[in-house]
Amino acid sequence: MRRLCGARPERYLVPAAALILAATLSAAAGNSERISIRLLPATILEHHDLKAMVTVEERAENRRLIVALDGPEFYSSTQRTLDGQKGPRRHEFLFRALPAGMYELVVSVEGVSGRTASVTRLFEVHGIGQGNEDAPDLTRRRRRPVG
Fold first, then answer.
1. Of the residues 9, 31, 58, 63, which has the fewest C-beta atoms closer than 10 A?
2. DSSP structure string for 105-139
């Protein structure tokens, strides 16, 4: 503890603030612990595919899984029927060739009486060479000399 207190305190402000924010959002989300989302790859470039791995807690009232991805030039929505505790916990969703921009992924579980849990995840698809005029043009192919 002495070593931590003797270090520069500003070094630990950002990680501490991030932990506090994460704990607050988790507490405010209520039933969101019923759903977890894992995005693969963690960093995605434009025109590449994104896999969303969704895990749903097994509950008897689970009837429908709804996944919606909304971006500046892209929208996709799908539904899957859940069979309560008998159905699979893990579900994979593949989004192909996403354009650059900010995205919002909303995953919801509905029961007999309506929505029981919902989680929203924000992420960015990075453009290739955005804001960098000095970057090489990767769209042109170079020919190899013959011989």
1. 9
2. EEEEEEETTEEEEEEEEEEEEEPTTTT-TTS---S
Q: What amino acid is encoded at 63 in this protein?
A: R
What the chain holds in terms of domains, given with CATH numbers, is 31-126 (2.60.40.730)
**47/128 Cα distance (integer angstroms):** 9
Q: pTM for this structure?
A: 0.65
Give CA–CA dist 135/17, Å, rounded. Answer: 35
Identify any residues that bridge with 111 across adjacent strands, giving them in sequence order.
114
List the structure tokens of 71. 């971006």
23 against 79, higher pLDDT: 79
